[in-house]
Structure formats: C-alpha cells, structure tokens
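Record ABC-type polar-amino-acid transporter, 260 aa.
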Amino acid sequence: MAETQVKPDAASRPIGEPLVVLEHVDKHFGSLHVLKDINLTVRRGEVVVVIGPSGSGKSTLCRTINRLETIDSGTIAIDGTRLPEEGRALARLRADVGMVFQSFNLFAHKSVLENVTLGPTKVKGLSRAAARTKANALLERVGVANQADKLPAQLSGGQQQRVAIARALAMDPQVMLFDEPTSALDPEMINEVLDVMVSLAAEGMTMIVVTHEMGFARKAAHRVVFMDGGQIVEESDPETFFTAPSSERARDFLSKILTH
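=>
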C-alpha cells in the first residue's frame, strides 16, 4: 500500500458520548500489582493511544477491556453495559470489541477469506454469501483482496496483520483494541499496517491503541495516555504531550525513545 498522504486532523474529527469507561480498575498477577486504580473514559469516535515503558501495564489494560484478563476490583463498561463475568452475554459484548494482537492469531488451516467470514457466520448468523461479500469488501479496504484464497503462511507479516484487522472489522465492532500491532513486523511492513489504522481513525472508528509508534500517535490520536508502574501518569492531546509533557517520568521516557 502507498503511504498515507492525507493526514487526519484529530482535533477536527467529532467525538461523542462515553463508550468505554474504566473506573477504579485494579489487577494483580500474584504479588505484582499491574493495574493500580485505573480511571479512563474513551468516547465514541475517539482515538486514544496508550504508551509507556515495558511492564507499565499497557497491554494488560487493553486486554481487560474485552475481559481477556479479569480484574480484581473496579468496573469496566462498554456503551453503558458492564462487562459480564462469562457466558453468552460476555460473548455478545466481546463482539462489539474488536481486538488486534501483536501476533496475528489467524487460523493457519483456513484461507484468508475463511478467516474473515468465520466470525460473522458462526457468531452473528450471517449467511455464507453475505459474509463472503462483506469479507471481500473488507479485504479490499485493507489492501489484500488479491490474497483472499491464500493461507496465512503464504502472506507477509504486514499482510497477515491487515487480514487480522479485516477479521476484527467483520464483526462490526463499536471499538477496536490494538495491542502493539506492529511490534512483530519487519520495519518495511510497519507503514502498511499503520496506514490502515490511520484510515480507520479518519473514518471515525473508536480505537484504543497500545503502541511504540510515536508517529501514529502524533498523526491519528485525539489523546495520548502515558502509563508507568501500572498507573496512568498523565494524559493530554498529542501536541501537548510530545512538546510539553507535565511529568518527569514522561519527559524521561520521551527523551529516550525520540532520540532513536
């Protein structure tokens, strides 16, 4: 895919009512306190980029939002509905929350097209024909329509990640979670995935993105959330965060990553 030429202006993109709300969320792994009293509200249409050093709790935070990780206390709600503990209600709510991981997690024995149609047919009851039509349109949207009949192993890492994005979009999610989606990619493949994410942001998709790609944060985010030690240390618009961070920890973090 060609590099995105149109830079979406985050400030000009409208955002709506609260969609994802975390209140006083705590999480332990044994004696390790990985999330400490997290309070975060993401509004409909907003792009929030979560950054911070390794081990700061970013990925755990992302995974609690669709209950891939349970929480010890606090509440998480999607569109006004608290995350259920388990069962069908949780599966229904998860369908509203698309997730793209570091590793692509595609079904190796199924074609690209089958990977994208599986969720809509099995979970949402879409007919095979309708699911194929939808999948082909999404594969076209992410630039891999010509790979529809191939197996994931026949694709590059960047292509596989774009298929993973299409698969998540096929469920018509209200919000998309991205957990370091480019960290496993070769450098030349990173932009082709970021370009798709930038276009989703420009179209108004609600997104929570854990990433080390500062260029994406500057280009597409409404808000940057900086985490360290399991806490949200500060949050602000990208321009303010990157030019005048308020905390010493953020200044130290940025001084290390922006010089490389």
